[in-house]
Write a structure and sequence with these properties.
Strand content: 5-15%
Helix content: 40-55%
Organism: Xanthobacter flavus
Number of helices: 18
GO cellular component, one term: endomembrane system
Keywords: Cell inner membrane, Cell membrane, Membrane, Transport
Strand order of the largest sheet: 8-9-7-10-6-11
Distance between the termini: 28 Å
Family: Belongs to the CmpA/NrtA family.
Structural class: alpha/beta
Oligomer: single chain
Main location: membrane
């Protein structure tokens, strides 16, 4: 396979290098200085930065439904960004102050570069899948082929490598040559580039957030092999990341931001079809370029879809009662701890030396600030309102 022929789109090698530089102390310093200048704006409104994926749903719903204003906050129109590098650059420099970010990426940001920011809530649970060419029938069939991931520090990379190893395959990152029969070559690719790459057989599969798995299904170019939420029960994918200067310097403002996000998640759970319309290109704000029919397949899929996934094996743990995407804001410490443990054993390009020094429990305490989400949950029915037991502890369930 010709790696050089892969579609570049919004995630070129330059973007990758840029993002890697941002997550170093030296690379982030100029942006942090710019942020300090912006920090002199004590009444800064809510400024959301997002990628056009379903991971951004609560932030966009909160804006569309006026939930920030209902909390007494000013909120600007969310800024659609085209790559994780753009999201991070805008966030570190202070151009935006509320973002959704891949949960493993926050580990990299906090401990790899010392970014003064913390996770305040989960944005959603599940919401991703491993999509493959129609001729692929099992994970084992991926041997000798190439699979795309959205970023090295992503739950997608963690889960797919877990699946590969469970099936006797070795994840590799070869820039040239063809992977051996017992290897699977992993490449980083922008989500929007994944369906075209699958259609032209440049990759045999990809693992990514929705709605790009639904796109492959509706276009007839691929099928879902496994849902990530059927491998790691109720896992976080994207989380809400905010600056420490806001969390510590503007606690009342921060509380109101989180209040709005929690209320947005509750509204989304009760209004899935309306959420799909709101996020779609047919919606009033055109938050994403996706058709409502594609988003419907993710947010409010027909029962027939579930039956088909059970039959194909895309869903193996029916007793988990996982939705294709669901919403629950509490950042369970056990998840962050297990994520750090698994990142240590995950193949990641770039400098990951900092991971070796991380204690999972300590990392969870330093990365996550749950004081605001606990208050917001208490005012909105607690975790039972989201279909979860009323406890802030749980045991992680991972079963390929």
């Amino acid at each position: 396979m010709c790696i050089a022929c892969l579609p570049r789109g919004g995630f070129s090698r330059r973007e990758m290098l840029k993002l890697s530089a941002l997550f170093t102390a030296a690379g982030a310093l100029p942006l942090l200085r710019a942020a300090e200048a912006r920090a002199q704006e004590p009444d800064a409104p809510v400024r959301i930065g997002y990628l056009p994926i379903t991971d951004a749903t609560p932030l966009l719903v909160a804006h569309a439904n006026g939930l920030f204003e209902a909390e007494g906050l000013k909120a600007e129109k969310p800024v659609l960004l085209r790559s994780w590098a753009q999201v991070i650059e805008a966030f570190i420099s202070g151009q935006v102050n509320v973002i959704h970010l891949l949960s493993p990426m926050t580990v990299w940001a906090r401990f790899g570069s010392g970014a003064p920011a913390r996770v305040v809530a989960w944005n959603h649970v599940s919401g991703s899948a491993l999509t493959v060419s129609p001729d692929i029938s099992s994970v084992a069939d991926l041997g000798g082929k190439t699979v795309a991931v959205p970023f090295w520090y992503s739950i997608h990379n963690v889960v797919v490598q877990n699946l590969l190893r469970e099936n006797g395959l070795i994840p590799v990152t070869k820039k040239t040559g063809t992977p051996a029969a017992n290897e699977v070559n992993l490449v980083v690719m922008a989500p929007a580039d994944m369906p075209p790459a699958l259609a032209t057989r440049q990759v045999a599969g990809y693992i990514v957030a929705e709605p790009f798995n639904a796109v492959a299904e509706t276009q007839g170019i691929g099928k879902i092999l496994r849902f990530t939420g059927d491998v790691w029960k109720d896992h976080a994918c994207c989380v809400v990341f905010m600056h420490e200067r806001d969390l510590d310097g503007r606690p009342e403002w921060s509380q109101k931001v989180v209040n709005a996000i929690v209320k947005a998640q509750l509204w989304t759970r009760a209004n899935r079809a309306e959420t799909a319309r709101l996020l779609s290109k047919e919606g009033p704000n055109r938050y994403t370029p996706h058709a409502q029919a594609v988003l419907d397949k993710v947010l409010s899929p027909p029962e027939a879809d579930t039956e088909a996934y059970l039959k194909s094996g895309a869903i193996r743990h029916a007793d988990w009662k996982e939705k294709r995407i669901d919403f629950q804001p509490y950042p369970f410490p056990s998840y962050t701890e297990e994520l750090v443990r698994r990142l240590k054993g995950t193949l990641i390009e770039g400098d990951g030396a900092f991971l070796a020094k991380l204690d999972p429990a300590t990392a969870a305490k330093q990365l996550v600030d749950d004081r605001f989400v606990k208050v917001a949950l208490a005012a909105n029915g607690g975790l039972p309102a989201f279909g979860f037991p009323d406890t802030f502890t749980r045991t992680e369930v991972i079963a390929p």
